[in-house]
Amino acid sequence: MHLAGIILFAAWERLDRPAGLRWDPDEAKRHAYRWNAPTDEQPKTQHGAYRLAIIGLSGLTAVPTARGTRVGMTVLGGQEDDEGFSFAWPIWRPPASFANIRALLSHPDLREPQALDYLDVDHVRITRRISLERYRNFTHAGPLE
To answer: Could you tell me if 129 and 85 are in contact, meaning their C-beta atoms sit under 8 angstroms apart?
Structure first.
């Protein structure tokens, strides 16, 4: 499938310089696991992935929420717990409308294994926000277990 020059469902080559959104876990350079400091190595990414993410952001309603004395954001598919912020999203089988996707993201059982099978959801993926030095990033998404 092609979308404005973006190849979907194929391995990405990651030849582009990052746009600075820091959503790609491969942009995170962890010094502790390297023989030398990776500061001279410029990370590579796939601009098409960022384009798809930016389009998808329009579906994520975010509202300010009070958490004790702090104000945070609540977003469709997002959850804040003792381990920090995580984001979950369904992988569905048939084509879905924008309204259907938003409904799936806000479903109360989104994080329950196989709870959305009856809605043709194949599985749910989850990523966690992590802090690396002064920057925040996200982990590689894994399936809900």
So the answer is: yes
